[in-house]
Amino acid sequence: MQTSPLETTRAPVTIAVTDLEFRKAEPVFRAAAGEGLHCVGVPVAERDFVEGVRKSGARHVIVGVEAYTGPLYAALAAGAVIARFGVGHDNLDKAQATARGLYCTNTPGALDDSVAEHTIALVLAAARQVVTVAGALAAGRWQGRVGGELKGKTLAVIGCGPIGCRVAAIASRGLGMRVVGCKRTADGADQLCREHGFAEVTTDFAAAVREADFVSLHIPNVPETRRYLGAERLAQLSPRAWVVNTARGAVVDEVALFDALASGRIAGAALDVFVREPYEPAAPEKDFRSLANVILTPHVGGSTAEACERMARRALWNIRLAEAGRHTEMDLLNRAVLASLGKAGR
Predict the structure, then answer these.
(1) Which of 155, 264, 295, 333 has the fewest beta carbons under 10 Å from its own?
(2) pTM above threshold 0.85
(3) Average of pLDDT values for 46-53?
(4) Residue among 38, 60, 218, 248 flagged as catalytic
């Protein structure tokens, strides 16, 4: 970590951190007091969060995945930072924040390894039927199953950003899989193959998944990708394919995926993220928990001790930069706020 831009002689700055995130990296948040940052845990729900901000006199906040729609933005003074403890930021209203002169940041790169490793763990669990056999043994049944090796199998990586590239490298160089990448544009394909182990990279989803044994999603949740994996694209998968999603729940049409799984149209799914979290089925009769060919984990892809420490440090670093007036160096999600506050050149 770089040298702190803050003067340690300054008056303490209070930062409100959502309780769950505070507990995930408590030693880091408590140690920040030595640099004049007083971190306090507050409830997650927006109304309670706002009350915690007001009672503590917090100048900045650090938040998790909870969606914040209005009161939080009104509770913060212009120049405050809303630091996302993580990478995805669809839970933040950047337009509203910009209008109120608030800086929104995230922690790029902090959880790339953790999410990539969890993705591979889900692929391995699917191939070796780990959940099924472990559950049977825990229930007292010695129930052997014949699994499959990953060497020589094909993995389609949909989205070739940092996490997708890390998944490709582990799968190709560590497990001997053939990895096909799919991205929006053709630029950089040769470099991706050379540096990250892709066998090929295409812009054609159908071509990427045609022979895939596993299809792993690594795309952001933006308007263009909502329900990206719907009935039409699911129909292009091989019947032996498993869908793996450690990106965002909203990029999958959960009803269409349930139907494909229940009908045997595809082999299975391993999901760490969902449209509604904690998980609630899209319809009562289409509950993933009722299917034997589904592996579910509760959005823990980025939840490792190492990643939590990196996210906490990066979130605090962005706040330190704001306090020091070094706004252009921040991991800003709403750079338009610089112009609105007259700090574009700082």
Answers:
(1) 264
(2) yes
(3) 97
(4) 248
